[in-house]
Design goal:
about 190 residues; alpha+beta; L,D-transpeptidase catalytic domain-like; nine-stranded mixed beta sheet; 2 helices; 9 strands; about 10% helix; about 20% strand; globular
C-alpha cells in the first residue's frame, strides 16, 4: 500500500524527491534540470577571489555557509553558488549522514539522466541527481530543485540545476579536486 501511494503521488507530481534526500522537490513536469535559481552568486563573500594555484581545477564546498566555489588551475575563483550538504541526522536511515569532509577527486560523471541507486529507500533508488559528479564512495555533487540554506541531504552536495549543468559540462573533469570543509566552526 505504501509503495502504491508513493507511486501515485510521484505520478501526480506531488511527491518531493531529490537525490540523497527526502526533503527536496522535483520541478513541475518532473525535470529538475529545467528549474533555475537566482542565487547562484551565493558564496562570493565566503570564498576568496584567489587561492594558491595547484595546476588543477578545484571545487570547494563549505557546509557552514551552504555555499560552493570553483577555482581554475591558476587559483582564480571562477564561480560560486548555493549548496546543501549532508544532514547531521537522517531519520529514515537512523544515523548521521553528513557529507564526508576532506580532499577528494572526481572519479565519475553522468548527465541529466543520473539518479540515485539508493534513495528514496521505499523504491530502492530512482531519485533524480541530474549532472552528477561522484567524488568519494558514492557521494556526488549534483543538481536538485530544492537547495535549502541548511544541510538536508543523505550526504551528497546539492547545487542548483543550472550550476550542476555548468559544473558538469564546463568545469569539472574526472580528476578535478573536491574539497569539503569541516561542518563545525573553528575558534
Amino acid at each position: 500500500m505504501k509503495r502504491v501511494l508513493l507511486l501515485a503521488l510521484a505520478a501526480a507530481g506531488a511527491l518531493s524527491l531529490a537525490a540523497c534526500s527526502r526533503s527536496a522537490s522535483v520541478a513541475p513536469g518532473g525535470n529538475p534540470a529545467l528549474v533555475h535559481h537566482s542565487d547562484d552568486a551565493k558564496g562570493q563573500n565566503v570564498f576568496p577571489e584567489t587561492r594558491p594555484a595547484t595546476g588543477k581545477r578545484v571545487f570547494i564546498f563549505d557546509p557552514k555557509d551552504t555555499a560552493w566555489a570553483a577555482y581554475d588551475e591558476n587559483g582564480h575563483r571562477v564561480k560560486t553558488g548555493r549548496a546543501s550538504g549532508g544532514n547531521s541526522w537522517c531519520e529514515d536511515i537512523g544515523r548521521a549522514c553528513k557529507t564526508a569532509v576532506g580532499k577528494f577527486t572526481v572519479y565519475a560523471k553522468k548527465g541529466e539522466e543520473c539518479q540515485s541507486s539508493r534513495y528514496p529507500l521505499e523504491t530502492n533508488g530512482g531519485a533524480p541527481m541530474p549532472h552528477c559528479m561522484h567524488f568519494y564512495k558514492g557521494y556526488a555533487i549534483h543538481g536538485a530543485y530544492h537547495v535549502p540554506d541548511y544541510n538536508a541531504s543523505h550526504g551528497c552536495i546539492r547545487v542548483t540545476p543550472s550550476a550542476a549543468q555548468w559544473l558538469n559540462n564546463d568545469f569539472m573533469r574526472v580528476g578535478t579536486t573536491v574539497i569539503v570543509e569541516p561542518y563545525g566552526h573553528s575558534f
